[in-house]
Every structure is written in C-alpha cells, then in structure tokens.
Amino acid sequence: MRNASVLAVLLVGACATPTQTGSGVERMYVINCGENHVKDVSRWTPGVNAGQPHVFSNHCYLIKHAQGWMLWDTGNADRIAALPSGLSVAGGAITAYMKKPLAESLKEIGVAPADIKHFAMSHAHGDHSGNANLFTAATLYVQRAEYAAMFGPEPQKFGFITANFEKLRANPAMILDGEHDVFGDGTVVIKAAPGHTPGHQVLVVRLPKTGPVMLSGDMVHLQYSWTYRVVPSFNFDIPGSMATIDAMKAYAQKTNTQLWINHDMEQNAKIPKAPAFVQ
Fold it and tell me: Can you tell me the distance from the alpha carbon of 12 to that of 28, in angstroms, rounded to the nearest whole number?
C-alpha cells in the first residue's frame, strides 16, 4: 500500500508552474477530520489482510477560489471529539475518532461556516457528512441519485444517517446529472463517480503550483484498492464501482491528475495539513 510515486509527483508539482494561467484557485487546506479504526481491514480489501487492524485517515478539503470558499466533505461528527474513546459503530467493527472539531479547525484558518458559499460531499455516509448541518448558508452540489437517496423514504438503506444532513433540505441546491464546473473556469470540477453510493462523486481541483488533483471520496479507500481495482463488497453497486475506477484512471492518466485518497493514512501523512495549505 506504499505510495512513494505520489509523494514524488507532489514534490515536483509544488515547484511546477501553474497548469492554468490566472487560475481562480488560490490554495487548498487539507483538514484532519477524524480517524476510523477498524478491526479487520479485509472488509475493504476482500481476499487479503484478513484479521488485520487498520487506521483510516479522514479529511475535509477547504478550497479558496477567487469567487469564494468551497468545502468538500465534512468528516466525522464534531460531537465525537468529546469522546476520548471514540464512537463504536457497525457492531464494534469500526471506532470513529475526532481529535479536533471541524468548526475549530475552520476558525483557526479564519473561516466561519457561514463564509462557505459552495459545499459538496463525495457522498452522504457518516464519516463524510458528520458536520453537514453547519453549512446551511451554502449552495449544495449533489448528484441527483444521491439527493434522492439522502432525502427519500429509506436513507438508512444506503447507510445514511439523516440527522447529519437534515438541515440541508432548505439549502439552495445544484442537482447534478454528471460533471459540473463549479466556478465556470475549469479549476474546480465535480465528476460523477457512482458505485460506492448511488450518487457518489469526486472533485478535481487545479491547484496553481501542484497542478490537478482528484479528491477520491470513497471511490477507493486505499492506494492498494486503486492499484489492484479492489472495492468493498458492501458498495452499493460493485460493477458500477469498477467502471468508475476504470473511467477515473483513464481520466487521471490523460490529464496527469494526481489521486489523493481520503482514507489512505500513509499517503496523507505526506500532504501538509491545515492550518498549512497546498497550492
């Protein structure tokens, strides 16, 4: 599961010239939004690592664009920060931790939830939607299939916790059917990536020095999963998940886009964390 090649590309990218002159993206903050400790990682890597414990990183991404702030994902719920032993879920198979509330991390950067005018989640599972209700002042960008699952009659069928995002019902929303250029300049693009959930999506951000990076959501959980085309058996649509990986690999290769895998602890250890930022 090592990813030295990504580190090399990241370091080279940090010294490169901008991929797009006059890019509207100024910088991006990668915020530590919790950890998820699991007793058996083979649930996410079927066929290997049976009985092996693992720690998944978890992040939120705050993008400073000339047209305003955008937040991608909201991590584990802030309330978990008050639980030193974490919150046990899935019958004890997963323990979620939150060392510092997202609201506090944003404050350190000088940003209040009301300052964020553009908001999207890769999907609505609890470790990505934990603090979604903070962002009622933002336009919500969401795939039509995900919105229907979130606010339909059976959100629990998809593993969603309605209380995490109930307040978003009143948000202005961009209901998407595929790709969407958030600011209209090609620097922040949402791409449909269904499979893990019905309307899962990824985000491509063109950073002015590092170049284009793709924020994975749960398209894959580990570098191993990306390399070997492996997805969990509990995904909503396994064939769809495979098709998404194939499509995004082709896109990444064609556009020289780095994949930043949200839950890969080893890869993320090499990426600067807020209040530092990447450009």
Answer: 17
What pLDDT does residue 115 have? Answer: 98
User: Please, which residues have CB within 8 angstroms of residue 78's CB and are 6 or more apart in sequence?
Assistant: 98, 101, 102, 103, 104, 130, 131
Paired tokens of 267: 């890869």
Q: Which residues contact 275 (CB under 8 A, 6 or more apart)?
A: 29, 105, 108, 109
CB atoms within 10 A of CB 187: 25
- Matching residue, tokens 């404050």: 107
pLDDT along the chain (279 residues), means of 10: 35 34 82 98 94 97 98 98 94 94 98 98 98 98 98 96 97 98 98 98 98 98 97 96 98 98 97 98
Residues 6+ away with beta carbon under 8 Å from 198: 143, 145, 146, 148, 149, 158, 236, 237
**Model pLDDT, residue 67:** 96
User: Both tokens of residue 275?
Assistant: 């209040």
Residue extents of the structural domains in the chain: 4-268
Q: Hey, which bits of the chain come out as E strands? A: 25-38, 54-65, 68-72, 87-89, 94-97, 116-120, 139-143, 173-176, 180-181, 188-192, 201-207, 211-215, 258-260
CATH number attached to the domain at 4-268: 3.60.15.10
Q: What's the pTM?
A: 0.91
